[in-house]
Design the sequence.
């Protein structure tokens, strides 16, 4: 089946109202000429209103980088999925490796966040991936499986229908070190096979992004692999021309 490619930016904790304006407008303008790819930006919470204002009606969707697992309550500082919906979000990243590592998010918690996103009608972008030590000790597939199985175990495989996965080897994030297309493809194929073990149709439709130092220079060879359905882009998503070049590489 022909899966549409998605290129999603993860701005992390970067941006300002003044700086975002040019970036969002440029991305919207550039994406207008790229009907063969879906584009999105995941921005810091305070800028969701700005993204909504500047991207509404454009070909670029927007979303957040995290969400609380509950829909309301006395959780100072947290943001609930229905709040993201208020700002027109389509996507929310869950389980980014920075959240897992720096904030101790377990696969169980990530699965609960995935559930919260789905219940609100958001499309979760579930990140999985191994550290360098885990890769070197041969645990790459075990780690991806554990992170994926937490969601399937809690919600069932049907919860992955029309969801997005992102394979992001931790050693490739923000390091300038990209997985080779073959390395990435091998893990993407493993993930799709694992989902297919539950439901072949869900597996065939599943959008699996690669993330980890994707740039304009390496995007096309990554996106050419049969199980790579686009990218989750950190650093390069902060520069309009770089991000748009990556989006263009994703056009079918
Ligand atoms: C990310 O933060 O998800 C990411 C892939 O970052 P970078 O592209 O900067 O490696």
Sequence:
């Amino acid at each position: 089946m022909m899966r549409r490619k998605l290129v999603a930016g993860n701005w992390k904790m970067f941006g300002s109202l003044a700086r975002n304006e040019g970036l969002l407008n440029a991305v919207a303008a550039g994406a207008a000429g790229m009907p063969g790819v879906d584009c999105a930006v995941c921005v810091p919470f305070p800028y969701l209103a700005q993204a909504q204002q500047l991207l509404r009606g454009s070909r670029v969707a927007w979303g957040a980088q995290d969400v609380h697992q509950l829909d309301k309550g006395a959780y100072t500082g947290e943001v609930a999925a229905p709040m993201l919906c208020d700002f027109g979000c389509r996507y929310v990243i869950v389980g980014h490796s920075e959240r897992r590592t720096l904030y101790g998010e377990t696969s169980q918690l990530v699965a609960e966040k995935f559930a919260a996103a789905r219940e609100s009608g958001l499309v979760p972008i579930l990140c999985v991936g191994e550290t360098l030590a885990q890769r070197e000790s041969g645990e790459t597939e075990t780690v991806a499986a554990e992170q994926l199985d937490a969601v399937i175990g809690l919600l069932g495989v049907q919860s992955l229908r029309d969801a997005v996965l992102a394979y992001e080897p931790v050693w490739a994030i923000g390091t300038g070190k990209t997985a080779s297309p073959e390395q990435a493809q091998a893990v993407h194929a493993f993930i799709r096979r694992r989902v297919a073990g539950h439901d072949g149709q869900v597996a065939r439709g599943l959008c699996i992004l690669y993330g980890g130092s994707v740039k304009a220079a390496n995007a096309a060879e990554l996106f050419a692999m049969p199980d790579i359905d686009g990218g989750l882009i950190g650093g390069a998503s902060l520069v309009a021309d770089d991000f748009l070049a990556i989006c263009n590489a994703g056009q079918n």
Summary: The chain has eleven helices and eight strands. The CA atoms of residues 14 and 44 lie 8 Å apart.
